[in-house]
Amino acid sequence: MSASGGTKAIIAALLANAGIALAKFVGYLVTGSSSMLAESVHSVADTSNQGLLLLGGKRAQRVATSDHPFGYGRDRYFYSFVVALLLFSLGSVFALYEGIHKLESHEPLTSPLVAVLILVVAIGLESYSFRTAIRESRPLKGKLSWWGFIRQSKSPELPVVLLEDFGALIGLVLALLGVGLAVLTGNPVFDALGTIAIGVLLGVIAVILIVEMKSLLIGEGAAQPVLRRIVGAIEEGDPVQRVIHIRTQYLGPEELLVAAKIALAPCTTIEDVARTIDEAEQRVRSAVPEARLIYLEPDLDRSAVPG
């Protein structure tokens, strides 16, 4: 997994969310706060999601078979897509339902200070998880913006954990705001409104993740900077003149398929074609390590002559 960094961020998020979920649920039982219940379900969903990400990483390491000759790298995309669906169904939909129900019932809070204390502690734990995800993402992010990293990353785990943790932190602030306003005004409607806001937030994040993971699952090609490095590596040596056309697709986060048709210098002998292709493939692998499967086809009709 991209590798130890992604795993470290997932484990940090899993441990933090498991502890937070338990504390929030106890807080809900004590206070009756719908915001606390929505946040409890949110943290349970996040904990399950981290487990699924670890499972996807493990299953992606299986050896290729005759039925799956390119291996199982896309398992990581599949499980990340499932995570996005769970975040939407368990997190967003439940929070919206609970918030609307609370809005209609006007049930008062009991022991709201307990809820406030738990939420403050949860913010601290979630901040630790978020900081870990940020630290592990920086080497992969490079010069991209954070939004650009989420949109362009071919490794799904870190963007998922980043968005989950970001959503969890904002959700905790919304829950704290809802409980605080309910205490200050004596009106439980604010707690219900905080719950609905959490549901909307989780829904937006889930939709972003669903769109991004679906794109990866279907199959994305290399980004333009990577594509330029591949073309440059192919055209770097003689007798390659130019790349006529090229197609790429990620078979997994660390496995890129490259297929290209290349024009060779006039009068290149058949004996030189194989050597030229081997050398070009080596240059591509050196420039782009994730390019594992490379197929280069010479335009023999215009490039080569019999040896």
Automatic annotation (TrEMBL):
SUPFAM superfamilies (alphabetical): Cation efflux protein cytoplasmic domain-like (SSF160240), Cation efflux protein transmembrane domain-like (SSF161111)
Cleavable signal peptide: none
Protein name as catalogued: Cation diffusion facilitator family transporter
Gene3D superfamilies in UniProt: Cation efflux protein transmembrane domain (1.20.1510.10), Cation efflux protein, cytoplasmic domain (3.30.70.1350)
Residue ranges crossing the lipid bilayer per the database entry: 77-97, 109-130, 166-185, 192-211
Membrane-protein topology: Multi-pass membrane protein
One Pfam family this sequence matches: Cation_efflux
InterPro entries: Cation_efflux, Cation_efflux_CTD_sf, Cation_efflux_TM, Cation_efflux_TMD_sf, SLC30A9
Location(s), subcellular: Membrane
Cation efflux protein transmembrane domain boundaries: 10-217
PANTHER family, per database record: HUEL-CATION TRANSPORTER, PROTON-COUPLED ZINC ANTIPORTER SLC30A9, MITOCHONDRIAL
Keyword set includes NAD: no
NCBIfam families membership: CDF
UniProt keyword Kinase present: no
Keywords: Membrane, Transmembrane, Transmembrane helix, Transport
Major subcellular site: membrane
